[in-house]
Amino acid sequence: APITITGSNIIVTTLNKGTSIFLNFTTNAPNFNLIGNNNIISDLKFTGDQVFRSNGHTVYLRGNDNTVTRCTVVGSSCFAVYVGASGTSINTKIHQNHIYNSAADGIHASVGVTRCDIYDNYIHDVADDGIGIGYEGGASEINVFSNNITNTGARGISIMGASSLVNVSSNNITNTWLGGIYVECYTGSVSLVNIT
Predict the structure, then answer these.
(1) Mean pLDDT value of segment 64-81
(2) Quick one: which of 30, 33, 72, 123 has the most CB atoms within 10 Å?
(3) How far apart are CA 164 and CA 109, in angstroms?
């Protein structure tokens, strides 16, 4: 069953680094919801069965000043790490994670996300984009840097949907099906994107 933790100043971690805490994720709902402010998820391993793509995001963050770090997410049936969509998320940090065998994006920052740093992640063998920014209405002030992304079913990094103030730098992107870095505005306009 999905787990939802609501509150602030919560640290979710394990004493045995890398121990799997989930098997056979629910496929039609987010599986690990963290709602609140100033929370940290670290040093966990999330293991799913990735039978088919669904709405079962593995780690779903909503709120301000939240961090996901040093986690492994394998076999997600949708986005492995998803931030945004319901309400706003400000000052999110997603770093030093290992994400693979996801049925959708490795990391996805959606509508309502402001000031999000995505860095030092290793993302490989995902069915869609390594990192997706925007889509449902945009995100702003997003920094994507020093990630290693390989073997994606779509693009390495996608920026879409009225996103603005996006900085992409020093990422290592190889073996993508549709391109390394992709910028498109199919809902609204994408503005002030800096790629180095």
Answers:
(1) 90
(2) 123
(3) 12
